[in-house]
Design goal:
Elements: H1 4-17, E1 21-22, H2 47-51, E2 60-68, E3 70-71, E4 74-75, E5 89-97, H3 103-117, E6 125-130, H4 134-144, E7 151-154, E8 160-162, E9 167-178, E10 198-211, E11 217-230, H5 231-238, H6 248-260, H7 270-288, H8 297-315, H9 323-334, H10 339-343, H11 345-376, H12 385-395, H13 399-407, H14 415-436, H15 439-452, H16 454-458
Parallel strand pairs: 1-2, 6-7
Antiparallel strand pairs: 2-5, 3-4, 5-11, 6-9, 8-9, 9-10, 10-11
Helix pairs in contact: 3-4, 6-7, 6-9, 7-8, 7-9, 7-11, 8-11, 8-13, 9-11, 11-12, 12-14, 14-15
The structure holds adenosine-5'-triphosphate and magnesium ion (3 copies).
The site of one magnesium ion has 2 residues, from loops.
Length: 469
């Protein structure tokens, strides 16, 4: 059986053979790009090549890119543990053309790799195209011989790919695999498309536009190609599995989690192991790329992911910190492909150990408060915002951690109430600060901080957590 490490190599070798330069993954923190929190796709490091601002000595490239999707336009945090196909950290395999080949060659490469080198069954594959893209539909018919009902036209943004609010973008064609009617879910474009029956494995973007913040969408001078295929998704297929978490790599992390918590990997704690395995990868790779847990910006997103994993370890009955014990298993699996992980191993372990030790001091009490609160409100009602705010402010529970805990019980948080409590506290802080001196300057400072704060560019709430850290 080909391992994920083998499959990564097969992909890169295929495109190397077809005259692509093999380029290293870029770091998870994009260089000089304040519009993006974390690298969320393979094209990020090539952004300026598509727009023509920069040129290099190659026009074709291929990469296995580290990606994190835990915020901003692409946020899969809430899917993790629950869908068969989402991670917060994953590897995106990609091939790129910068003003070199375009639609017909990209589709021909994709079809050849999938059906010849990877040997997938053609009859299980179907594709989507942007609703106006007759050209792409025609190429699929010609190259792959797909019948019309296997070329689905989609009018939504799902088939017009964007990295974020600005930057190069364009219509795309996506390739799906049908895992069979014993699994719930409908084809793309149908009402139940979010099920796990039809799984998107590869997206080919026809880069031909640039989006500006003021709403303008202009045609680019060059026509380029940007593709992305999740290694874990194609890996699951090639290993005869339906679920990414059943691939060799993810499975070894799940087993490490089960071992460290003396639990059954497939028992009632299954979801916890999946979340832990996933969050272990995102937190470790973020630390290896220089992000440290903190109370704002990227560091706060890292802390949120960590704490979430730590609650899941706690739910498995772990009495002591767990996450740091799993790092060696991850390094064994991925250290050869990503040497930065091996180099940072000691730092990752120490950071996870310290964070988990600190968070455990309040986790028990916070969970108890949560139970008490729930006992006081009617069955099924939302947790009042004030209680969620207290968990955040006093016990260091990020809002999404509380939401994640409630989700297991089919309940939710009154988010508007939470925001109001947060606002109230900020107003109090403002009042006491301006009272302490230089009122006029203080007021201006707060106005600037709020207008220019990190909240906007990170795309979601990254307010400073007071209290326990
Ligand atoms: P989905 O619709 O399944 O959420 P997507 O359309 O958001 O996927 P793209 O932005 O097109 O994904 O990214 C290209 C490829 O990267 C996808 O076709 C998929 O194989 C992979 N991918 C995307 N998000 C994830 C994720 N969270 N975990 C694992 N693989 C992913
Ligand atoms: Mg998605
Ligand atoms: Mg999609
Ligand atoms: Mg897609």
């Amino acid at each position: 059986m080909a391992s994920l490490n083998d499959i990564r190599s097969t992909y890169l070798d295929f495109f190397r053979r077809n005259d692509h330069r093999v380029v290293d993954s870029s770091p998870l923190v994009p260089r000089n790009d304040p519009t993006l929190m974390f690298t969320n796709s393979g094209m990020v490091q090539f952004k300026n090549l598509f727009t023509g601002v920069e040129t290099r000595d190659y026009k074709r490239a291929t990469t296995a890119q580290k990606c994190v999707r835990a915020g901003g336009k692409h946020n899969d945090l809430d899917n993790v543990g629950y869908t068969a196909r989402h991670h917060t950290f994953f590897e995106m395999l990609g091939n790129f053309s910068f003003g070199d080949y375009f639609k017909d060659q990209a589709i021909a490469f994709a079809w050849e790799l999938l059906t010849k080198d990877f040997g997938l069954n053609k009859d299980k594959l179907l594709v989507t195209v942007y609703h106006t893209d007759d050209e792409a539909a025609g190429i699929w018919k010609k190259v792959a011989g797909l019948s019309d009902d296997r070329i689905i036209r989609i009018a939504s943004d799902d088939n017009f790919w964007r990295m974020g609010p600005t930057g190069p973008c364009g219509p795309c064609t996506e390739i799906f695999y049908d895992h069979g009617d014993h699994i719930w879910g409908g084809p793309p474009g149908s009402a139940n498309e979010d099920g796990d029956r039809f799984i998107e494995i590869w997206n080919n973007v026809f880069m031909q536009n640039e989006q500006f913040a003021d709403g303008r969408l202009i045609p680019l001078e060059m026509q380029s190609i940007d593709t992305g295929m999740g290694l874990e998704r194609i890996g699951a297929l090639l290993q005869g599995k339906h679920d990414n978490y059943d691939t060799d790599l993810m499975r070894s992390l799940i087993e490490a989690s089960a071992h460290a918590t003396s639990n059954d990997p497939d028992g009632p704690g299954k979801v916890h192991h999946r979340v832990i395995a996933d969050h272990l990868r995102s937190t470790s790779f973020l630390i290896a790329d220089g992000v440290m847990p903190s109370n704002e910006g990227r560091g706060y997103v890292l802390r949120r992911i960590m704490r979430r994993a730590m609650r899941h370890a706690h739910m498995l009955g772990a009495q002591d910190p767990v996450m740091f014990k799993l790092v060696p298993a991850l390094v064994r699996q991925m250290g050869a492909a990503y040497p930065e992980l091996t180099r940072a191993q000691a730092l990752i372990e120490e950071t996870l150990r310290l964070e988990e030790t600190k968070f455990r001091q309040t986790l028990d009490r916070g969970l108890k408060l949560l139970d008490d609160e729930l006992a006081h409100i009617p069955e099924g009602a939302d947790l009042p915002g004030g209680a969620a705010f207290k968990l955040y402010d006093t016990y260091g529970f990020p809002l999404d951690l509380t939401q994640d805990a409630l989700r297991e019980m089919g309940r939710a948080v009154d988010v508007a109430g939470f925001d109001a409590a947060m606002e109230e506290q900020k107003a109090k802080a403002r009042a006491s600060w301006s009272g302490a001196g230089g009122t006029a300057e203080a007021k201006v400072w707060f106005e600037i901080a709020e207008a220019k704060g990190t909240t906007e560019f990170l795309g979601y709430d990254t307010e400073t957590a007071e209290g326990v850290v």
